[in-house]
Amino acid sequence: MRPEEQAPLRRRDISLEPLAARITEAAPELTTGRRVVGDPKSAAGKRTLYLPAFLHMEVKRHLEWFAEKDDDGLLFVGERGAPFRRSTFGRKWRKARAKSGLPDDFRFYDLRHTGHTLSTQSGATLKDTMVRAGQSTAKAALIYQHSDDDRQQEVADGIDAKVRDARQKAQEKKQERAS
């Protein structure tokens, strides 16, 4: 999700079964510090984002420990009980990034890139990725997809497996016809 999509999330927007977040609005923070609540960046931004099961315990704990308790309560609460602010979030992000061993130049937004790269690597189509990201154009979706040497080796291995399988099946058919 975009940070401005995370800011207005409420407890009611989260489902544990299935694990998902409903994104219906955005609340970008202006340079004045004021938040403007409205529609997401595009019509495609209104969506249900299904989350991977490995996050279940973290989401459940977040709801129990950090989110405001009532149904309309904020999911991510800032230091003063309002939606988190860019300045406060930046400090907390730098601390969390250092604690987890991420490089200093790893930006919070890089998590969005990572998530969408992982979705395509897990087999998601371009349209699947566009829906997950809340993007209305393929061009926008492609910005978030990266391919490194490890992934290129996986692709090569996948091609190799397909060709070997096809050759094996052709060989078996050839033997059947010969017998």
TrEMBL record:
This protein's UniProt keywords: DNA recombination
Output the superkingdom of the source species.
Answer: Bacteria
What organism is recorded for this protein?
Streptomyces albospinus
Any idea what this protein is called?
A: Tyr recombinase domain-containing protein
- Does the keyword Plastid feature in the UniProt annotation? no
List each copy of the Tyr recombinase domain by range.
Answer: 1-157
* InterPro entries assigned to the protein according to its UniProt record, in alphabetical order: DNA_brk_join_enz (IPR011010), Integrase-like_cat_sf (IPR013762), Integrase_catalytic (IPR002104)
Cytoplasm recorded as keyword = no
